[in-house]
Amino acid sequence: MKKVPGNAVTLMVKTYVRIFPEVSKQLAYWKNRALEIPDGELRNQALASLETKRFHCQGGAVYALIAGERYKEAIQFIVAYQTISDYLDNLCDRSTSLDAQDFQLLHEAMRDALSPENPVKNYYEKRKEHEDGGYLAELVKTCQAILTHIPEYSQFQHQLLWLEGLYADLQVHKHVRVVERVPRLKQWYEQHEDIAKYLQWQEFSAAAGSTLGIFCVVSYSLGYYVTAAFATDIVRSYFPYMQGLHILLDYYIDQQEDDMEGDLNFCSFYKNSSEMNERLQFFADMADRYLGKLPDTEFHLLVRKGLVGLYLGDPKARMIPDQTGLKKNLLVKNGIASRFFHWNTRTYYHLKQK
After folding, report:
1. Is the pTM of this model over 0.85?
2. Alpha-carbon gap, residue 58 to 83, rounded angstroms
3. In the chain, which end has fewer C-beta atoms inside a 10 angstrom radius, N or C?
């Protein structure tokens, strides 16, 4: 396999020099398309998702380094797919509907994006807003076009659809009426006892909510020949622990924001900060164990440590009461690489404010 970054400095340099400029280019294109959306509500939610969640695309696009010379195609796919995810999340979280059928139909866009054989459809059929000027359909078709250039895609498509199915189920259950959310999520968790061992119900939900496994498989398949067995190894290495750590950290920094907005936050279900600290470190340790089974182990472990540094370096993390020193404990236990990414992230946000 081609060489990918194996140390924090090289990873950071390549990310800033090669990845971020291309991500910015792709996001600028989708922002221009979002500005053309006729319906005001859909336009507002599309623009809000691009403006407030661009770091999701930046973080996910690091996997494009696996794709070798085809890294631009990987970034194009990752930005389009993550933009679908963030846009639909806004439509479910911040918009006008609490209808589970509406959420299910909307998220068929993510399934279709992974299914080049599927035609696009009217994903807005169950809600009053319809006119998006072809925005969502173009996002779906962009992903489909990239996947059609992967000859062996049909061999591992079902693994990606499995991850997407969990993601879509989560989005439906957590966005219905407030009184229904936790009971539905707990029942869903119990239905997946075979893959939810050692997890609490909210942790299983968090693991389902990440797109990292999909990005990893697609990026590898653009750079190399990926067999069904290798795709399965990636999925098993990323779900549940790497993906769970990703989303739990995301919820950790969003605690105050979600409390103000009345949104469900998985970190709020821990008994206290001490338990949260223990569980986050448990996820980090288990992720390392499973990622260690993949080729390019150093790269995957760096990304895992980078997640800790990236999220804890976000300005929102500094606003959270931290009586037990959770941030300090995690940074110390996750080593020099995490502290490097943490320092780099804080510096980035500091310079951005100037």
Report:
1. yes
2. 11
3. C
Angle between helices 153-175 and 212-223 (to 10 degrees): 160
Among residues 108, 113, 125, 218, which one has the least CA distance to residue 165?
A: 108
CA–CA distance, 92 with 125 (Å, rounded to integer): 14
Residue 15 and residue 310 in contact, taking contact as beta carbons nearer than 8 Å: no
Which residues in the chain belong to E strands, given as ranges? none
| pLDDT at position 350 | 67
- With a cut of 60, say whether residue 1 has pLDDT above it: no
Helical axes 241-253 vs 212-223, angle rounded to 10°:
130
**How many angstroms separate the CA atoms of 253 and 56, rounded?**
14
Residue 55, judged by CB atoms within 10 A of its CB (0-12, 13-18, 19+), counts as middle
d(CA 118, CA 113): 8
